[in-house]
Amino acid sequence: MCVVVGFFDRGVLADVNQEVLVLNSDYEPLNICNLRRAMNLVFLGKVDILHEDSIVLHTVSRVYRSPSVLRLRSHVKRPHPQLRLSRRSILARDNYACQYCGHSGHDLTVDHVVPRRLGGPTTWENLVCCCKRCNTRKGDKTLAQIGFSLRQQPRRPKYVPFISLTKFIAGAKNEVWRDYLPVFLTAGEGHSSKKLEQFGHSGAGYAGVR
C-alpha cells in the first residue's frame, strides 16, 4: 500500500488541500476531496483519472500530474440526499447575489419576500438572498410598497447533489468540472409568474432563517 506523505511541485511542497472532483462509477458527482486523499485513491487502484491539471507532482521516485477529476471503479450506493432549507442553501441557490439589486459581497442575508407579519411563510418560494442595504430599506414592507422587483422568482431546487450545495455551486465555476456537474436550476428557471402572495405554506420550515 502506498500512502501519500507529501508532494512537491518544482521543489515546493504542493498544496495537499487542492480540491479534486470524485465521480461514482456512473459519473454521478459524489464528493470533492483534497489532493492527498485523491492520490491515495489512485495508488490503491480504486479510481480512474479522467482529467489532470497542470501541476506536476514529484515524489522521491516518480513524477505525476495532479488529478482534477476521478471516477470510482466500483459503484458506491448512497441514500438520496435531502436538501435542507437554510440560510446557506438560499445564498448558494441565488449564486450569492442580492435578488433585489444584484449586489454580491460579504454582507448578504436572507429576506422574506412576503413579510412574516403578513403571513409570509419560511419556504424556498418566499426566501431570497438579500444584501443588508436592501434588507434595511425593505424592512417589513411588500415589494409593491417599496418598489422592489425580484431578479428571478425563487423556487426549490430540483437537483439535489450529493456534494454540499455550496461546494457544488463553487465547483460549477471550474470549466473542467462543469461537464460532470448536472445543471443546477437557479431560482428563476422554469418557474411560473404566479405572484408570491399566492404561494401556499408548503415546504420545509427553518426557524433560524430571518
Low-confidence stretches are: 1-5, 8-13, 185-210
Proportion of residues in extended strands: 15-25%
Sheet with the most strands, sense and barrel status: 4 strands, mixed
Radius of gyration over all CA atoms, rounded: 21 Å
Q: Portion of residues in helices?
A: 10-25%
How would you summarize the topology of this molecule?
Layout: E1 8-9, E2 12-13, E3 19-23, E4 29-34, H1 35-43, E5 47-58, E6 63-72, H2 87-93, E7 108-112, E8 127-131, H3 132-138, H4 143-146, H5 165-171
Parallel strand pairs: 3-6
Antiparallel strand pairs: 1-2, 3-4, 5-6, 7-8
3D architecture notes:
16% of the residues lie in helices and 22% in strands. The chain is α+β, with helices and mostly antiparallel strands and 210 residues long. It has a 4-stranded mixed β-sheet with strand order 4-3-6-5, with helices on one face. It has a two-stranded antiparallel ribbon with strand order 1-2. The chain has a two-stranded antiparallel sheet with strand order 7-8. The N terminus and C terminus are likely disordered. The longest helix is centred in the N-terminal third of the chain and has 9 residues. The protein is built from 5 helices and 8 strands. It is elongated and about 70 Å long. It folds into 2 domains: 99 residues, no CATH class; 73 residues, DNA Binding (I), subunit A (Orthogonal Bundle).
